[in-house]
Design a protein that fits this description.
By secondary structure, this protein is of the alpha/beta class. It folds into two domains: 163 residues, Bordetella uptake gene, domain 1 (D-Maltodextrin-Binding Protein, domain 2, 3-Layer(aba) Sandwich), CATH 3.40.190; 99 residues, 3-Layer(aba) Sandwich (D-Maltodextrin-Binding Protein, domain 2), CATH 3.40.190. The N and C termini lie far apart (55 Å). About 5% of the residues have low confidence.
C-alpha cells in the first residue's frame, strides 16, 4: 500500500468516526421530537399494562415529550415483543415486559424474536404474588390448604393466565414446594382465570398482588400467603403471612418488569432513555402508586442497562432449570 493510499484510508476512517460522533450527538440533542410509544405485549387492564401506564406518565417530564401505551397482546407476549424487536431503532417504540421474557427461550422454539434483538434499558419494579383460592375451600390457613391438597392433589385445579405467564411460573414453584401434582388449567389471560376462580370453577391461583388485592379485600377469594420474603404493608395484605413463614421454606417469587428498545438504537438515545427511566422510578407519585399495590420500585444497579442485562441472564438460567424440572417441553 502506498503512503498516499494509507493516508487516504486513515483519513476516511477518521472522517467516518467524526460523522458517527456528529450523528450520535445530533440524535441526543433532538430526541425525542415526537411522542414515544411503549408497547405492552399483553391486554389492557392487566398488571403489565397498569405498570406501563404509570411509567409512561412519569417519563413525560424527564423526556419532555408525550409517552403513550399501546397494547399488542397475543402468543403470551411474543407478538408485541417481536413488533418492538423489528421496529425502527430510533427510540420511539419501546417495550415493557415482565419475567416472561426470561422464560421464553425455555418455553418456545420459535417465539418470533431473539432477546439479542433488544437493548436493555433498566429494570422498573418487582411485584410479589399471592396464593389465592375459591371461597368454598375448607380452612383459612396454608396448613389447612396443604392438608386438603394432600388428600385431593390431582383433583385440585390450579388456574393460570397461560403457559409462561407469571401465574403459571409461580404455580410451578408452588407445586414443586408442595410436592404436588395438581391439575394445571391455563387460560387466555388473567381476567378469565380470576373470573372462574371467584365463581368456583377452579380451586387455586397464584396471582400478582396488582390483580388479587381487590378480590382479597372484597372477600371474593381466600388468601393463603404472599410470595415475597417479607410481609406486605398494604391494607388488604398486612395480616397475610409470607408463604415461607407459613411453612414453604425458601419460597421467593416476584414478577419484575423491565424497559427495552430495538437493537441498534444509538447509544446517545439509550443513555437519554435510561436517564429518564431512573428519574421516573424516583417520582414520588409513581412510587406511591406502586407501593399502594404492594410493588417495590427498583432502586439498585438493575435500573442501569448493564445491571438489568446481568440480572436478566441469571433469570434465564434460573427458569431454564425450573421449567426442565417440571418436565415442560418447548412448543
Amino acid at each position: 500500500m502506498t503512503d498516499f493510499a494509507r493516508t487516504r484510508k486513515i483519513s476516511i476512517a477518521v472522517m467516518s468516526g467524526l460523522i458517527a460522533s456528529a450523528v450520535s450527538g445530533s440524535a441526543l440533542a433532538e430526541y425525542p421530537e415526537k411522542l414515544v410509544t411503549i408497547v405492552v405485549p399483553f391486554s389492557a387492564g392487566g398488571p403489565s399494562d397498569k405498570i406501563a401506564r404509570d411509567l409512561a406518565e412519569a417519563l413525560r417530564k424527564p423526556l419532555g415529550q408525550t409517552v403513550v401505551v399501546e397494547n399488542t397482546a397475543g402468543a403470551c407476549g411474543s407478538i408485541g415483543t417481536a413488533r418492538v424487536a423489528r421496529a425502527p431503532n430510533d427510540g420511539y417504540r419501546l417495550l415493557v415486559h415482565h419475567i416472561g421474557l426470561a422464560t421464553a427461550p425455555s418455553l418456545y422454539k420459535k417465539p418470533g424474536y431473539k432477546t439479542e434483538d433488544l437493548e436493555f434499558l433498566g429494570l422498573i419494579n418487582e411485584a410479589p404474588s399471592t396464593l389465592i383460592g375459591k371461597t368454598a375451600l375448607p380452612g383459612n390457613s396454608l396448613a389447612d390448604l396443604r392438608k386438603y391438597i394432600a388428600e385431593n392433589d390431582s383433583k385440585i385445579n390450579l388456574a393460570n393466565a397461560g403457559v409462561g405467564s407469571a401465574s403459571h411460573l409461580c404455580g410451578l414453584i408452588l407445586q414443586n414446594a408442595l410436592k404436588s401434582n395438581m391439575t394445571s388449567v391455563p387460560y387466555k389471560g388473567t381476567a378469565p382465570a380470576m373470573t372462574d376462580l371467584m365463581g368456583g370453577q377452579v380451586d387455586l391461583m397464584c396471582e400478582q398482588v396488582t390483580n388479587s388485592s381487590p378480590q382479597i379485600e372484597s372477600k371474593k377469594v381466600k388468601v393463603y400467603g404472599v410470595s415475597s420474603t417479607k410481609r406486605l404493608t398494604t391494607p388488604a395484605l398486612a395480616d397475610v403471612p409470607t408463604l415461607e413463614e407459613a411453612g414453604l421454606k425458601g419460597f421467593d417469587f416476584t414478577v419484575w418488569h423491565g424497559l427495552y428498545a430495538p437493537r441498534g438504537t444509538p447509544p446517545a438515545i439509550l443513555d437519554k432513555i435510561n436517564a429518564a427511566l431512573r428519574t421516573a422510578i424516583k417520582d414520588p407519585s409513581l412510587v406511591k402508586r406502586q407501593e399502594a399495590l404492594g410493588i417495590t420500585v427498583v432502586a439498585d444497579a438493575r435500573a442501569e442497562p448493564a445491571g438489568h442485562k446481568k440480572f436478566f441472564e441469571g433469570e434465564v438460567n434460573r427458569w431454564a432449570r425450573v421449567i426442565k424440572d417440571a418436565g415442560i417441553q418447548p412448543e
